Amino acid sequence: MQWLLSFYRSTIGKKILMAVTGLLLVGFVVSHMLANLLVFQGPGKLDEYAAFLRGTGGALWVARGGLLAAAVLHVVLALQLTRLNQVSRPARYARRVPQVSTLGSRSMRWGGVLLLAFIVYHLLHFTFGPTHPSYPAFDHATVHANVLTAFTGRWGVVAFYVVAMGALGLHLSHGVWSMLQTVGVNHPNLNQGRRRLAQALAAVVALGFAAVPIAVGLGWVR
Amino acid sequence: MELNARIPSGPIEQKWDRAKFENKLVNPANKRKHTVLVVGSGLAGASAAATLGELGYRVECFCFQDSPRRAHSIAAQGGINAAKNYQNDGDSIYRLFYDTVKGGDFRSREANVYRLAQISVEIIDQCVAQGVPFAREYGGLLANRSFGGAQVSRTFYARGQTGQQLLLGAYSALERQIAAGTVRMFPRTEMLDLIVIDGRARGIVVRDLVTGRIEPHFGDAVVLGTGGYSNVFYLSTNAKGCNVTATYRAYKRGAAFGNPCFTQIHPTCIPVSGDYQSKLTLMSESLRNDGRVWVPKQKGDTRRPRSIPEAERDYYLERKYPSFGNLAPRDIASRSAKEVCDEGRGVGENGLGVYLDFADAIGRLGEQVIRERYGNLFEMYQRITDEDPYRVPMRIFPAVHYTMGGLWVDYHLMSTVPGLFVIGEANFSDHGANRLGASALMQGLADGYFVLPHTIGDYLARGTPGPPDAGHADVRGVLEAVHERTRRLLAVQGARTVDSFHRELGRVMWDHCGMARNDAGLRKALARIPEIREEFWRNVRVLGEGEELNQSLEKAGRVADFLEFGELMCRDALHRRESCGGHFREESQTPEGEALRDDDQYAYVAAWAYAGDGREPVLHKEPLAFEYVPLATRSYK
Amino acid sequence: MNLTLLVWRQASPSAAGRMERYEAKGMSPDMSFLEMLDVVNEGLIERGETPIAFEHDCREGICGSCGLMIDGVAHGPMSGTATCQLHMRSFRDGATITIEPWRARAFPVLRDLVVDRGAFDRIIQAGGYIGVATGNAPDANAIPIAKDVVDRAMDAAQCIGCGACVAACPNASAMLFTAAKATHLGLLPQGQTERYRRALRMVTRMDIEGFGGCTNFGECQEACPKEISVDTIARLNRDYLKASLVASPSADGGADGG
Ligand SMILES: Cc1cc2nc3c(=O)[nH]c(=O)nc-3n(C[C@H](O)[C@H](O)[C@H](O)COP(=O)(O)OP(=O)(O)OC[C@H]3O[C@@H](n4cnc5c(N)ncnc54)[C@H](O)[C@@H]3O)c2cc1C
Ligand code: HEM
Ligand code: HEM
Ligand code: SF4
Ligand code: F3S
Ligand code: FES
Question: Helix, strand or coil for residue B458?
C-alpha cells in the first residue's frame, strides 16, 4: 500500500488518476450522449431505455457508484493539482505570452468548475427534479416528457445547457489528448492521431448533447 | 628548483604499467581519511572527482559556474580520438602516439603521450557504459570520422556536441558520487589562492560568488583542472568565465609554468563583426572534411563568391599541401589564412576572412547528407551571420582556441609544488607546441579517469602532514592577501570599466603574441602590458561590495591576473627564438615561409618559476629526448 | 537601433525587486542580445550605477547558463535558440523589451536576472546517471545499438539544463528536463537496469524540489532551445506508472529522492 500512497502523492500519480477518472467520465458522457439521441426516435424509446437501465437493478447502482466516485476523485485531484501548480510560481511574470498552449488546455480549470456546476444543476433537473418545471409533480421515469417540458420555450435553460456543452467540448479537446499523454500512450506514428482523436470526440460529444435542447427548444421533437 | 619528470624506466610500452605497479597504494580503509580538493568540474575535474569519490576518498569539488555541468568542456564540438582501430584503417596506439608527438612538433614528452594513446581506448569504453550517445552506423556499431591532421578515422563523436555528451557523462558520475556523499560540490565558488605550507599544497582560498564570503578549504592534496587561459586575448572561442587565476595564483605560490606562449589558433571560427564583439564562435573543424577553403586569386576582389569563376579562385590549402589539403593541421591552416589576408585577398567587410565552401560536397553527397553531418553547425552559423551556408560559402577566420601551455607537471601530473596536481588543459599537457583536433577531450578524460586517481594515491600513500589548522600563520597570511586584493580592487573607483582594460590587453596580445610573433613586437608588448596594468590599478572602476554577488568584481580579479600573465607569455615567446607548432617566430622560417624548428637549442620545455613581484621569472629547462619518434621536420606537403 | 528596456532589478534574494527602465541607444542589429546588455552595463558602470547581473558563459547555446524571460517568452522570440544565440536583428528599432528572470518557487532569484537552478542538479543526483564506476566497462562495441535508438537518445541528451522549460510552463513544472534525462538513459541498453528506479527517484526529487506538475500545456517544448519533445514526458509518465505498479519495492521512490 505504501507504493499506492507515494504514487498518489506524486504529481505524476495524481495526473494518472486524473486521466483514469477522466476516461471513466468520458465513457459515461459518450454513452449518455448516444442514449439522449433516442429522443429523436419519438416518444417511448428513451423511456424504454431508461426503464431497461433501471431494470438491470444492481448493475445500475454499481455503475452510478463508480461514476460518482470517479467524478468526486476527478474533481478532488483537479483541485489538488491546480492548487499545487499555483503555489509553484509564487511571483508572477510582469509579462508572459503563451506560445502554443491551446484554449482547451488553458480552460481545463474554470471549464471544469463550470461542468461541476452544470452536473449539480443537471441532476436536480432530470434526476431529482427540484429545478424541473414539473416539480413537485416530477417523475423521473417519464424521461422523454421531462426533456420536452424542460426545454420547450425555456431559452434560458437551453442556453445554459448549450454553454455547458461548449465547456465540455473544450474540456475534452484537451482532456482526451492529455489523458493519452499522461498514461504514456505515445508513439511517433500515433502522436498526430492523438490530437485529432481528441478534437473529433470533443466535437461529436458536444454537438450530440447540444442537439437535444436545441431541437426541443425549436419544437422539432414531439 | 630541479625538474624531475619522474618518467618510469623501461620500454615505452611498459612505462605506465610499471608506474602503476611501483606506485604505493592507499589502504582502502584509509582512503576516506584523505581529503582531496579538486578545483574544476570540466572533463578533467569532474572525471577525477567522480573517480576519486568512487575509490573512497573524501573529495571537495569546486567550480565557478552555477552547476558543474556548465564547465567549458561542454562546448567541445568535433569529437574525441581513440586508437580503437574499429575502422580497420591501420590505426594503432603507436600511430596515435606518433601522430600526437609529430603533431605537437616535438615539444611534448614521449612517455606521457604514449600513455595517453594507451588510455584513449579505455576512455571510449567508459563513456559508452555511462550512456554517452556516440554516433553509430546502421549496424549499431560506433561511427568514426577523420579529424584535423589525421589520416585515419579515429575520432568518435556525438553530432556536433561531443564535449557536451562527454561532460554530461562525467557530470552524471560526479552527481552520483555527490548523492553517495563521497564528493561535496561547491558551485559558484572561485579559487583565489593556493595554501602552501612547508613546501606542500595544503589547501585553497575560495570566494563564494553568491555571498562573497572568502574562506579556506584544507586537504591532503589539491588538484587543478581549471582549463585554459585563451581569454588573455579577450576574444577567443573560450567561455567568458575561462580564466588563468587558479593556475597563475599557483604559479605565484611556487608552481612552475610550462611553455606559456604555446597557444593554438583555430582556423575555422566565425569572423569578428564589430567592436562590441564579446567572444568568437568556433565552427568545428570537422567542417574541413567536406568544405573547401579558398579566396579570390586577385586582391580586393569584391564580387559575390558564387560569381567568382573556378579559375579565379585560389584553393590555397589544396595547392600548398596536396597530401593533406583542407585537412592540414590547425597551426598551418591558420597561418595560411593570415597570409592570404595579409596579401589583401581576405573576404568579408573587414577583409579578415576566407571562404569555406560546401558547394562541391553538396553537389557530391546531396544537401541531406551535409545536413545530417553538420546541421547544427550550419544553423549556428546562420543564426550568427544571417547567411545560409547551404547557399553561400561560410566566411571563417582563425581565433585563439586552446592553450598548450600550463602548469608544468611530471609523469604523475604533479606540479613542482608537492601535493599540487594539475590535469586537463590547465597543465602544460601532452600536446607540445600544437594540439591535434579531438585530443584535448581525450587528454582531459585520460588525466581525470585513469591517470590522476593512480598517481595521487602514490603521493598520499607516502604520507602527508594532513590538513593544517585554520589558525596557522601561513593560512592567515594567504587569507589576508586575498582580502587585501579584493579591497584594493573595490577601492580604486577609477573611470574605466574592467572590460575596457581586458579588450586593450587582448589587442596587444593578438597583435604581438598571436599567430605570428617577432622580437620587436614582443618587446613592444612587454613594454605596453605593465603600463596597462599600472593604469588598471589606478583607474579601474569596480562598483558594489565584496560581500555580495558581484560580477564586475569577479571579472576584475581575473583580468588583473591576465594583466600579469600576459607578460609571462610574451617573455616566453620572446625567449623561444624558434618556430614550432602554434608558436611562429617570423625570424625563424624556411624560404617558403614554413615554420623552422631549432632542435639543437630549443628541444626543451620552458618552465618558468616566479621570483617575486617586479623580478624577472627564472627559466628552468626540461630537456626533451625523442627515442621513438625520430626528430623530423613536420611536413604536410 | 534604439531600444527601451524594462529590467527586473533585485539586490539580493531577500530584497524586494522591481522593474526598472533603461534606454539602450545606438545598438547594432548584428549584436547578440547579451552583447547588447554588455554595452548597457558598460554605460551603467560609467554612470556609477550597478550593472545588471545576468548569467552567461559559453555564449554559443551549449552551457545552459544564460536564460532570460524576454517579452514574456523564455529565451526570447526566436524558437530553438538560447538567449545568448539571440541577435538584435530579431527586434524592431524603437521596441520596448521586457526582461525578467526565470520565475519558479524552485528557482529562487539570487540577484537581478540570476536564479538558483541547483534543484536541477539534485534531480540528476536522484538518479540521472548510469551507475558504472570508472574502469569496469566492457568494450564500447560489445553492445550494438540501433542508429535510430541512439539518435533518439541523443535528441533527449541534448538538454542543456537551462531551465526555460520550467520558466515557460504555466505550472513551473520541471517535467521536460526530468523526462529528457530519463528518456536519454532509458532508451539505451546500458540504462535499462536502473530504468524504473531512476524514474521513481527523479520524479520524487522533482516533486520535493517544489516544481509544479505537468498538465500537458506543451509550452516547455516550444521554449526549449534544444527543441526537446514532450513525447519524452509521455515516456516518463509510462515508466513511472510501470515503476509504481510492477517495479520491486527495493526500487524505492526514496522519500529523500537522493
Ligand atoms: C569551442 C571549443 C571547441 C572545442 N572542441 C574540441 C574538440 O572537438 N575536441 C577536443 O578534443 N577538444 C576540443 N576543445 C578543447 C577542449 O574542449 C578543452 O581543452 C577541454 O574541454 C578542457 O577541459 P578541462 O576540464 O581541462 O577544463 P574546462 O572544461 O574548461 O573546465 C574548467 C573548470 O574549472 C573551473 N574553474 C576555472 N577557474 C576556476 C577558478 N578560479 N576557481 C574555481 N573553479 C575554476 C570551471 O568552473 C570549470 O569547471 C574545444 C574547445 C573549445 C573552446
Ligand atoms: C466535474 C467537474 C470537473 C472538473 C473540475 C474537471 C477538471 C479537470 C482538470 C483541471 C483537468 C486537468 C487535469 C490535468 O490535466 O492534470 C481535467 C482533466 C480531465 N478531465 Fe475533467 N473536470 C471535470 C469534469 C470532467 C468531466 C465531466 C469529464 C468527462 C466528460 C472530464 C474529463 C477530463 C479528462 C479526460 C481530463 C484529462 C486528464 C489528463 O490530463 O490526463 N472532466 N479535468
Ligand atoms: C444536453 C445534454 C443532456 C441532456 C438532454 C441530458 C439528459 C438527462 C436525463 C433526461 C437524465 C435522466 C435519465 C434518467 O433519470 O433515467 C440525465 C441523467 C444524468 N445526466 Fe444528463 N443530460 C445531458 C448532458 C449531461 C452531461 C454533459 C453530463 C455529464 C458531464 C450528464 C450527466 C448526467 C448524470 C450523471 C445523470 C444521472 C444518471 C443516473 O441517474 O444514473 N448529462 N441526463
Ligand atoms: S529541457 Fe530544454 S528547456 Fe528544459 S532545461 Fe533542458 S534544454 Fe532547457
Ligand atoms: S509546459 Fe508544463 S504542463 Fe507539462 S507539457 Fe510542459 S511541463
Ligand atoms: S551562455 Fe551558454 S548557453 Fe547561453
Answer: helix
Complex confidence, ipTM:
0.95
Helices (H) and strands (E) in chain B, counts: 18, 19
Torsion sign (Cα): B51, B57, B58, B64: negative
CA distance A212 to A192: 32
Binned at pLDDT 50, 70 and 90, residue C247 comes out as: low
Q: Which of A80, A26, A10, A79 is nearest to A197 (CA)?
A: A26
CA distances from B57 to B226, B319, B421, C25, C52 (A): 20, 55, 16, 55, 41
Q: Residue B473 has what pLDDT?
A: 94
CA atoms within 13 A on the CB side of C166: 30
Q: Is A107 exposed, middle or buried (0-12, 13-18, 19+ CB in 10 A)?
A: middle
- Does position B530 have pLDDT exceeding 80, yes or no? yes
Q: Which residues have CB under 6 Å of ligand 5?
A: C 169, 171, 173, 175-176, 214-220, 230, 233
- Supply the DSSP symbol for B427: B
Number of helices and strands in chain C (H, E): 8, 7
Burial B559-582 (b: 16+ CB within 10 A, else e): bbbbbbbbbbbbbbbbebebbbbb
Closest of B386, B428, B115 to residue B258, by C-alpha:
B428
Grid coordinates of C240: 513511472
Q: Could you give the CA distance from residue B453 to residue B460 in angstroms, rounded to a whole number?
A: 11
| Other Cβ atoms closer than 10 A to B326 | 23
| Least confident window among A130-139, B110-119, C33-42 | A130-139
Q: Nine-digit cell at C115?
A: 536564479
Which grid cell is C104?
A: 519558479
Closest partner residue to A94 (CB to CB) among C98, C109, C241 is C98
Q: Which amino acid is at A219?
A: G
Give just the sign of the alpha carbon dihedral B36, B39, B40, B41: positive
Longest dimension (CA), chain A: 59
- Alpha-carbon distances, residue B432 vs B95, B435, C51 (angstroms): 17, 7, 41
Exposed, middle or buried, A187 (CB in 10 Å: 0-12/13-18/19+)? exposed
Dig out the grid coordinates for B510 from the structure.
593578438
Q: Supply the pLDDT for residue B469.
A: 87
Paired strand residues for C96: C4
Q: B330 catalytic, yes or no? A: yes
C-alpha cell of residue B562: 591576465
Nearest to B514 by CA among B335, B368, B349, B270: B335
First to last CA, chain C: 50
Our measurement of the distance from residue B25's CA atom to the centroid of its chain's CA atoms, rounded to an integer in Å, reads 31
Single out the residue of B212, B252, B284, B331 nearest to residue B567, CA to CA: B252
Using a CB-CB distance cutoff of 8 angstroms, which residues of chain C are in contact with residue A193? none
Query: Can you tell me the distance from the alpha carbon of B191 to that of B223, in angstroms, rounded to the nearest whole number?
Result: 12
If you average pLDDT over residues C23-45, what whole number do you get? 96
pLDDT recorded at residue C252? 46
Q: Residue C73 and residue A97: Cβ atoms within 8 Å? A: yes
Short-list B445, C183, B544, CA closest to C175 = C183
Mutating to test ligand 4, I would choose from C154, C155, C160 the residue with most ligand atoms within 8 A of its C-beta, which is: C160
What share of chain B has pLDDT > 90, as a percent?
Answer: 87
Q: What CA dihedral angle connects B414, B419, B422 and B427, to 10 degrees? A: -50
**Contacts with C235 (C-beta within 8 Å, 6 or more apart), sequence order:** A184, A186, C179, C182, C183, C186
In this complex, do A93 and C103 lie within 8 Å of one another by their Cβ atoms?
A: yes
- A110 in contact with C, Cβ within 8 Å: no
Could you tell me whether strands B80-81 and B221-224 are parallel, antiparallel, or unpaired per DSSP bridges? Answer: unpaired
